[in-house]
Amino acid sequence: DAGVIQSPRHEVTEMGQEVTLRCKPISGHDYLFWYRQTMMRGLELLIYFNNNVPIDDSGMPEDRFSAKMPNASFSTLKIQPSEPRDSAVYFCASGPTGGNEQFFGPGTRLTVL
Amino acid sequence: KQEVTQIPAALSVPEGENLVLNCSFTDSAIYNLQWFRQDPGKGLTSLLLIQSSQREQTSGRLNASLDKSSGRSTLYIAASQPGDSATYLCAVHNNNDMRFGAGTRLTVKP
To answer: Cβ separation of A100 and B45 shorter than 8 Å?
Structure first.
């Protein structure tokens, strides 16, 4: 298996633009997590899904952020409109039934100018 | 290449005990170190973040220390409770890379 796949790996955009980050989890995994990492705050959980259903979105910073998982093999994290303070590395992780393990993707480094 | 080790792999204590979890890392050039709690079926919960310039951080019954020169961090949990039962992970961030330890599975018995 190729592991968790994220795209793009790098994204540079201007303030106010819409940004869509994509994630393909490991096949067969029931859980999918979105995290954001910054130097000041470390790694923070944004939202996670179980069997394509959002379970906990309490970490989503504000309404500008939304996440979807239309099927078991694809998820998106959208920021609209983007702001400079959204600049961070966004990680997607997936995990098998039981939720005791998480496998991280390589991350998307987002820069909002 | 950074390697992160957590000892012990599992720990079982009676309620009320104070306990220490250990994390060691091989490359001391870190940006920060973070302790997480993992519960089955949930995302990682951040407990404490220690920047490289800091020695310790405290939150409630938790205290984390960092000694970069020796490549060690400890998580101290005071007056443990059954609700503290979970897997505790430390993660080290350096040079655009984040490495997790394998975790310590903690069980606090009532």
So the answer is: no
